[in-house]
Amino acid sequence: MKKTGTSVAAAALIAVAALSYISSSGATASPTARAPAEVVLPITVDDFRLPDQNLHSHELRQLGDASAVVLITQANSCPVSRNSSASVKALQDEYSSKGVEIFMLNSTTIDKRDAIIAEAQAYGYNLPILLDVNQLVGEQLGVTRSAEVIVIDPKTWKIVYRGPIDDRVTYERQKAKADHTWAKDALDAQLAGKPVPVAKVEAVGCLVDFPERAKIATSKVTYVKNIAPMFEDKCVSCHEPGGIGPMPFTKFEEISPFAPMIREMIRTQRMPPWRADPSIGHFLGDRSLSAAQIKTLVHWIEAGAPRGAGADPLAAKTFVAPEWPLGKPDLVLDVPAFTIPANGIVDYQRPYIVNPLKEGKWLRASTIKVVNRQTVHHILTGYLAQVPGPGEVANESKWGVSLGGYAVGAESFVEPPDTGAYIPPGGAVGFQVHYTPFGQQVTEHSQIALYFYKDKPKFVMRNSVVLNANIVIPANTESSEQQAYIDVPKDMMLYGVFPHAHYRGASSQFFMVEPSGKRTLLVSLPHYDFNWQREYNFVQPVKVPAGSKLLAVYTYDNSVRNPANPDHNRVVPWGDQSFDEMLYTAFHYEWVGETSDKMEQYASFDKDLNQGRLFGMLDTKMNGKLDMSELTGPIGKQFAANFAKIDTDHDGFIEPNELAAAEAGMQKRRQQASQPATAAPAAAPAQPAAEKTGGGQ
Ligand code: HEC
Question: Among the four residues 50, 425, 608, 684, which has the most C-beta atoms within 10 Å?
Fold first, then answer.
């Protein structure tokens, strides 16, 4: 086959085919006279993922089993939007129970999330409002006005109706009753499998400004000038020979054939793999694209992905993934080799090695290198003061400081300046490794590279976790919310947060709740993604005053719509394996005032911190006392059974000191029965996980 001299034309063709745009005159019964001339109306809706006002995200193509999907464009302060709120509510009331998914879509450039929440409260919109801050969805849909209803057939992703909800409200005019109920008629027809009677009526809401839409066709953005530097910065580190991305993106000829796929990955927020909502917090090593970059990249593709004149800036460079991204290690430890069978379930492995360090070292950074990426789900590490005895494993309940952790996309940990974690000499290094079979038997030899300080650093990094081992995720439920908190006994600087759940994790939020009740959202993952887990390290560490709570809130999608869900009919408990669930947010912190020569003094604060974990799992009302209604779940029930005995002051509540006493009693009885801690799943999980973190799971 003749090699095309330039693949610009080819890329343009692919891009145009993928976009499936057609001009407005072809798509509609009545031309959009008042809409800007360049707006084209699509026949189908391209996939997208957007967060809503509550920072839970939604992907269009996951709604394939809905009977219809309705998007209603919304803009704050628009009288037509506001006056339609009763009709929107009526539509919801009638059709939500019939499998119709109804969303609002805010594509304005000015409405911020808080203002949208306030508007929704004031006008009674009780539905998810999708935040299209980059306007990509509104642009593709050909949106020009608010209060436009777009009815989509999920079997074909075609738009079957677009226009006003009815003819009751227009700009500056209202009727008592609608003569035409276009949206309702469209939904009735769609649900009956019949053609929609009127497919297009001109929208009457407020004009929404799309400043970039008109410029796409005449854009001067080229690969050589604008796109290549963006790829070098945000994509190549994985998409290079030896990198973890499936294909290299190191020259134009490698990138342009993937233009439509890149556009889809950006619109569905799958690439680059960075899940923190950009409106919450600033993080080190942020791999996300900025809003401007997202728009530039997608518009470049929509304009045909032109190469532009001049030499290819990427082709001139060599990109090869380095063996150790942080440079030559001071010490490399081998994780004991393990042979993973081709199929089946492999229990968590908890091997250990004898600590080779003859003197204590301060850890500055670490990286874990994995050979077979498909099979290693995660690796956690922890220092063990004593080498486990014969037949014993590296039990996490005995772990001290973390030496680092691994999950895809999160291989390295680097301490802040002059801050380290102390690894004593002697003892052992324990690992917790989760291998997942992938159809081929392999033997894995992972390694961990350690980097030490020459001189003792001034500050001490510690790690802990907020977890809830008491969770029970109901079957066939699209959004089940669960939470846990931990009380902070002393002023702390919070450095990083590593959220972790399994296949049903849908979203994750981490809050600081100050003694005054003030709640600050520190990290938000609107789309929790099992495949991409990492620690989010703050650019500015967060000061957490003593008496605050660190609160982790997760939602779980245990419905058929979650493509990762192994069994939506199962009630899912806490458990190690990915088909069970976790609510587990690890974090790194420093005690304010602690320096490396005062460590012993501060160790008791760690004890206090970890002691409160169990209480924070159960206290769902967050009022510092437990009543019977909070004692559900496998752990809660154990305490419920002995409520009267535990409630020693007989005030009808279990307070933290009463719970701690009951927990200690239980532990003592277990020890007397000489059961290993791991064999007591109910009350024990608070304990084993107490000191493991640093890498999430
Ligand atoms: C942290 C590593 C990493 C970074 C950074 C990254 N990718 Fe990826 N990319 C991957 C991996 C791994 C996959 C395989 C699919 C998966 O695991 O989600 C992938 C898949 C893709 C695919 C889908 C390929 C296919 O056909 O299935 C596209 C397109 C893509 N990436 C584009 C990008 C772009 C564009 C950027 C930069 C803006 C980027 N990626 C940054 C790791 C990365």
Answer: 50
483 plus 589 within the same structural domain: yes
Judgement on whether residues 494 and 469 belong to the same structural domain of the protein: yes
- pLDDT for res 656: 96
Residue 38, pLDDT score: 66
Query: 258: Cβ below 6 Å to ligand 1?
Result: yes
Ligand 1 center from residue 267 Cα (angstroms): 13
* Ligand 1 atom with the shortest distance to the CA of 258: 29
Ligand 1 atom 12, closest CA: 245
Q: What percent of the chain has pLDDT over 90?
A: 76
The pLDDT value recorded for residue 614 is 96
Q: Is 341 domain-assigned?
A: yes
Please identify, by atom number, the ligand 1 atom nearest to the C-alpha of residue 237: 5
**Residue 226 belongs to some domain of the structure:** yes
Residues 6+ away with beta carbon under 8 Å from 27:
40, 41, 42, 43, 200
Q: What is the per-residue pLDDT for 101? A: 98
- pLDDT band at residue 345 using 50, 70 and 90 as cut-offs: confident
Q: Is the CB of 564 under 6 A from ligand 1?
A: no
Q: What CATH number is given to the structural domain containing 344?
A: 2.60.120.230
Sign of the Cα torsion 391, 395, 399, 402 reads: positive
Residue nearest atom 13 in ligand 1 by C-alpha distance = 245
Tell which of 296, 321, 346 closes a domain: 321
How many domains does the chain contain in total?
4
Quote the pLDDT of residue 674.
61
Name the helix (H) or strand (E) containing 485. strand 477-487
Helix (H, G, I), strand (E, B) or coil at 597: helix
Query: With bands split at pLDDT 50, 70 and 90, how would you rate the model's confidence at 216?
Result: confident
Q: Are 568 and 474 in contact (CB under 8 A)?
A: no
User: What pTM was computed for the model?
Assistant: 0.87
* Residue 513 in domain: yes
Mean pLDDT to the nearest integer, 193-215: 94
pLDDT at 661: 94
Same structural domain, 201 and 339: no
pLDDT value of residue 30: 32
Query: Which of 210, 231, 250 delimits the end of a domain?
Result: 210
Task: Quote the domain boundaries for residue 317.
Answer: 1-26+216-321
Does one domain contain both 204 and 226?
no
Span from the CA of 369 to the centroid of ligand 1 (angstroms): 19
Angle value at C-alpha 221, between 224 and 19, nearest 5 degrees = 110
Residue 680 has pLDDT above 50, yes or no: no
Q: Are residues 174 and 269 in the same domain?
A: no
> What are all long-range contacts of 242-246, with beta carbons under 8 Å and residues at least 24 apart?
242/320, 242/321, 243/319, 243/321, 244/321, 244/373, 244/408, 244/409
Domain-located, residue 326: no
**What is the distance between the alpha carbons of residues 168 and 179, in angstroms, rounded to a whole number?**
7
Q: Does residue 261 have its Cβ closer than 6 Å to ligand 1?
A: yes
Same domain, 505 and 491: yes
